[in-house]
Design goal:
about 475 residues, about 70% helix
Length: about 475
């Protein structure tokens, strides 16, 4: 699935919801147990068949040899009385053709083989559709569901997404009729439909499906094929979807509604037992409080997030959380406190050997000093960030740190440059200094008479 998109909250908080859960072991169609030639897929195999059956072929076999594989599949369905399967197969083939025509020449689907030209997929459809129809006649809806879910899982390639979604929807409808499993299949169907709706952008509808999934699985011992409890899956999906909903609310400046929704997201994260998820949920909630002007509450919750990320040695999470703390403190005019707090972050990163966090801490400290006009200190921290990034051999990170160094150097020069421009009318030496700098473009604007750096750009140690 494609990654979910956030517009206000940081994109790094949420990742793609991943594939549909594996609720059943993937079943494939066994070799088709037909003795008739019309189910042989290519001419070489047919010739081999004829060679082994030299006594001759029946009229049916001869006709089958002339027909397409799709036509022979359909004939066999009708001959065996699977009229519903026949109709459903034809409908799917017609839908594929309609999608291709709608996309037009030049589209990806235009160059793909049609469904009727892919024997392996026709085999799967033949096998599971007929089994589902037989189970429906017998009133065994749990078997109908299992066969439909098997088809949904089989069509997992991007070009078959529409087929997968179709069978998930069919299995959802069938699950409502199953009464013998305590609601297990119904729960599976709701989470699958929730994922489809989320991918299609129907976030509210997805939330409804995930909430039903949570209600159906609460207190049950059910686990998927990977050993993950259904309740944990429900909490994970609800945390993600509530965060998505809150992001939309924040975008619309509905801060209080967003806070309520993110409180629900945090509750789901705690119930799911995933510490990483709890850290991200607390972080998002703190941002919502910050956006609403409740800075003290935001800081309190952020400290919880910092504690969680520290225990997990999560450098990325720590960097985001400390950056948020610094931003909130700076917005309150508490720059000194922000510097102190970030200094602790840097010490913790050094003691825990978190190289990425060390880069983040230096960058954040550099930004604070840069905003305060302490350009020498800013350059010092940005330079340390660059060295730490080089130690990581992370070229994009090195480039980012070097760009910050460039900005700090430019700001250093601007201080001296502006002071000389302001004094040029009254002090000819300032004009001479500017002209000398223009010729040399050195890092500092030197006094042309003494050759010594200007006092305003002299280096000083960081706080």
């Amino acid at each position: 699935m494609s990654p979910v998109k956030l517009n206000v909250l940081p994109q790094a908080v949420l990742q793609s919801p991943g594939e549909h859960p594996k609720f059943i072991e993937q079943a494939l169609c066994p070799p088709l147990d037909f003795a008739r030639i019309h189910l042989i897929k290519d001419k070489d195999a047919t010739d081999d068949y004829l060679a082994k059956n030299i006594k001759g072929v029946s009229e049916q076999e001869a006709a089958a040899y002339r027909n397409s594989y799709k036509k022979n599949i359909c004939i066999d369905m009708l001959r065996r009385g699977y009229h519903k399967s026949f109709s459903e197969l034809l409908t799917l083939i017609q839908k594929w053709n309609a999608l291709r025509e709608a996309a037009g020449p030049g589209s990806a689907i235009w160059h793909e083989k049609s469904l009727e030209e892919q024997p392996d997929k026709l085999d799967q459809l033949y096998h599971f559709l007929t089994r589902a129809e037989a189970a429906r006649r017998a009133g065994h809806y749990e078997e109908v569901y299992d066969n439909q879910l098997s088809l949904a899982c089989f069509f997992n390639e991007p070009e078959d997404k529409w087929l997968s979604n179709y069978f998930y929807e069919q299995s959802f409808n069938t699950a409502q009729l199953v009464e013998i499993d305590g609601g297990k299949r119904k729960a599976q169907a709701y989470v699958n439909m929730g994922l489809i709706n989320e991918e299609q952008g129907h976030v509210m509808k997805a939330a409804e499906h995930f909430e039903t999934f949570y209600q159906l699985t609460e207190g049950t011992p059910w686990k998927d094929e990977t050993g993950c409890a259904y309740t944990s899956l429900a909490c994970q999906h609800l945390w993600r979807i509530y965060t998505l909903l809150a992001d939309k609310m924040l975008e619309n400046k509905e801060h209080q509604e967003a806070i309520k929704t993110l409180i629900k997201a945090l509750k789901m994260a705690k119930e799911g037992g995933d510490m990483k998820m709890q850290g991200e949920a607390a972080y998002c909630l703190s941002l919502a409080y910050h956006f609403s002007g409740e800075h003290e509450t935001a800081l309190t919750i952020l400290k919880t997030s910092v504690e969680i990320f520290t225990s997990l040695c999560d450098s990325a999470g720590l960097g985001r959380a400390y950056a948020a703390v610094a931003k909130i403190l700076a917005s309150q005019g508490k720059s000194d406190e922000a510097v102190t707090y970030l200094g602790e972050f840097m010490k913790d990163a050094e003691s825990a050997h978190l190289s990425q966090s060390l880069v983040d801490a230096n960058v954040l400290l550099g930004k604070v000093h840069n905003e305060r006009g302490n350009y020498n200190e800013a350059l010092e921290y940005f330079s340390q960030a660059s060295e730490a990034a080089k130690a990581l051999n992370n070229l994009p990170l090195v480039a980012e740190a070097e760009s910050y160094c460039g900005m700090a150097r430019a700001h250093q020069l601007m201080v001296a440059f502006n002071s000389h421009v302001a004094a040029a009318a009254a002090d000819p030496r300032s004009l001479q200094c500017l002209l000398a700098w223009k010729q040399s473009r050195s890092d500092v604007c030197a006094d042309p008479l003494t050759g010594e750096p200007d006092k305003e750009t002299s280096a000083s140690k960081p706080l």
